[in-house]
Amino acid sequence: MAKEILPQAAVIYGASGDLTKRKLLPAFWHLWLQQRLPKGFALVGYARTAMTTEEFRQSTFDDVRKFSTHPPEGDAWDEFARRLSYYQGEFLEPGAMKDFATYLEKIDAEFGTEGRRIFDAAVPPTVYADIVRRIGEAGLQQDAKIVLEKPFVLDLQSAHDLDEGSRTGCSSRSGTVDTSTTCRSRSPRRSGSRGAAPSTSRSATSGT
Predict the structure, then answer these.
(1) Buried b (16+ CB within 10 A) or exposed e, 45-78
(2) Is 184 part of any domain?
(3) Is the C or the N end of the chain the one with fewer CB within 10 Å?
């Protein structure tokens, strides 16, 4: 018996970047076509670039048409596009994602994502620790997974920084680690058709 796919919202940090355009958005579209995403699903693009939700939807349409083997068309595309939205925000400033937490609550209400999140950090490794800290500051770590694209550190110092940021960000307000949170890393795809579903390795940093 297939495992039930629980409702959740996917957040892509670095939504205006090349990795998102070429790999992640086509992959999510492919998953939607295969009915491998929950009915309660939404995808939120997050980046510093100024962009409206309508512009993000149009950009996603163009990227999927260019990089996916599955054309964006029909009722399936219309429903998928309806679940796309965009949020302009920062990564580095303390407290930068507190307003974003309120925005995600609105997404939960509209699409029934029930407060579950998967955060995909499609950004340079130098800001991974900052993103994890911002997630923790905003209280978004509950029922969440964080996907880090490999290579996720540059040297020993950046490894220490990421470890410290993960311990801080993936913790509850009481200071103890939140066991519902897992920080995961994704290996780069070496082969396969465009638009294939993203694969994840076992967690590199865990909230357990």
Answers:
(1) bbbeeebeeeebbebbbebbeebbebebeeeebe
(2) yes
(3) N
> E strand or H helix at 42, and its extent?
strand 41-47
Q: How many Cα atoms sit within 13 Å of 173 on the Cβ side?
A: 4
User: Rounded to an integer, what distance in angstroms lies between the CA atom of residue 38 and that of residue 175?
Assistant: 32
Residue 22 DSSP label: I
CATH number at residue 37: 3.40.50.720
Domain that holds residue 109: 8-206
Structural domains counted in the chain: 1
Return the number of other C-beta atoms located less than 10 Å from residue 41's C-beta.
Answer: 20
Split at pLDDT 50, 70, 90, the class of 26 is: very high
CB-based contact 121:148 (threshold 8 Å): yes
pLDDT at 207 over 90: no
Q: Is residue 2 part of a domain?
A: no
E strands, 52-191, where? Answer: 84-88, 117-121, 144-149, 182-186
Pairing of strands 182-186, 205-206: antiparallel
Give domain status of residue 3, yes or no.
no
Task: Extract the tokens encoding 126.
Answer: 């130098």
The pLDDT score that the predictor gives to residue 41 is 98
